[in-house]
Amino acid sequence: MTRRHLVPLPTAAPWRGPRRGATTVAAALLVAACAAPALAVPPPPRPTAPVPAPAPLATAAPLATSPATTDAGAGAHARYGRGTLRSVTPLARLSRDEVAHAVGEHGVDVSSVRHGIATHRIEYATITPTGEPTTASALLTLPDGGGHALSTVAELHGTVAHREDAPSVGDNVTRLGAYLYAAGGRATVAPDYLGLGTSPGTHPYMDTASSVSASLDALRAARTATARLGRALTGEVHVTGFSQGGQVAMGLGRALAHGADRHLRLRSLTPVSGPYDIAGQELPAIFDGRVDDGSAVFYLAYFLTAQNRLHPLYDDPREVFRQPYADRMETLFDGEHSDEDVARGLPATVDALLTEEWKARLQHPTGTLAEVIEGIDGTCAWRPRVPVRLHTAAGDRDVPTGNTTSCASELRRRGAHPEVVRHGDVDHLRGYLGALSDNARWLAHHG
């Protein structure tokens, strides 16, 4: 979940082979708090002809088992070749100064920036929420220095409805963490999730299990891609994420800690403002005014539309949404409309969006709806044995701080010792920017 205006990174230098010279960035990210989740400017067009990667890579390799998918108990991995690399597209290179400018312009501490970076889009095999084979994409960002073997930061992005806003295809705030962490000397993998980036279909929004599986497979594919690019990954993974990505980060951390892949080892968890407690915190906050009206409308409409594609919540959108909004939901959330277009197609308040019946159901979930929410909640119901730092902000009106309080309490109840990092009375985005600074400094000293 996230609210933002995004302005693209206009002129990051295209890939020109293995060089280390300076490039020019005309401007950087602009992030501003806003009344509804929307884009100020559409993202730039995707490249029409990707430059070949330094080593040959098949663009449509068969779904075959790779070394990263042969861990014990991973029959589905072997069956569908989960994590098999399909292609690499070099995107851009930025010098150390360019990264520092792009990141530091928004008040993010750049003391950890030590290297220039190179960005790549990777495409790989993964599975759908129902376990069928599909493909997904991710942004792989490597430092120009930092040694041959690199640890990895998994950076999980917040809510976007438009596939072109995902990290590997949109030069916007979803890349900010990838730039910062890679410039600190680590590989960074920023998955697009299913139905976003170049992945087919629609995004199963808030289906935590499939976002985790796609992110796990992105880490597997990144291992192969990094080797093809002349580097290596150590297998040590620091997991972080913002908003929706904070919740995914907790789920991915649990999967890694429980041995989902023998090549990958969880080292730390530093999620930011995740909706960890939909039933106990997020939904009550939507209806008592702690969540901004525009954000509440966007999140509820997206959540219900996406979840109904996976579960039989309703037969007809008119059961849930008032007109004229009911007739436009499937189109608005098809992945092809910008967040700005989606917001323009929605009402200003939850009362104007929902029927009385569904407003009551969301305040007191039962049946399939309750089961769906229960399946999403619970990402904090385990005992991490690595450092855990949960970031939150008192002024957040998208994901109120009670979500973090609930997560910390659950972790402590299970014997973990999370640190809660509070970023003061700032909004959702400003809390994220503060967390980026803190995470980068922490990794520089402890990672």
Keyphrases for this structure?
single chain, 447 residues, alpha/beta, eight-stranded mixed sheet, 14 helices, globular
Ranges where pLDDT stays below 50 over 5 or more residues in a row are 3-11, 15-74
Shape: globular
CATH topology: Rossmann fold
Could you state the order of secondary-structure elements as H and E? EEEHEHEEEHEHEHEHHHHHHHEHEH
User: What's the CATH H-level superfamily name?
Assistant: Alpha/Beta hydrolase fold, catalytic domain
Look at the structure and give the CATH class. Alpha Beta
**Main β-sheet, spatial strand arrangement:** 2-4-5-6-8-7-9-10
Number of helices: 14
CATH architecture: 3-Layer(aba) Sandwich
SS strand fraction? 15-25%
Count of extended strands: 12
Mean pLDDT across all amino acids: 86
- Oligomer class: single chain
In the residues, how many domains can be counted? 1
End-to-end span in angstroms? 27 Å
- Roughly how many Å is the radius of gyration? 20 Å
Q: What does this molecule look like?
A:
The chain is of the alpha/beta class. The chain has one domain (5-276, 378-446): Rossmann fold (3-Layer(aba) Sandwich). Helices cover 33% and strands 17% of the residues. It has 14 helices and twelve strands. Strands 2-4-5-6-8-7-9-10 form an eight-stranded mixed β-sheet, sandwiched between helices. Strands 1-3 form a two-stranded antiparallel sheet. A two-stranded parallel sheet has the order 11-12. The longest helix has 21 residues, at 208-228. It is globular, with a radius of gyration of 20 Å. Mean pLDDT is 86; it is low at 3-11 and 15-74.
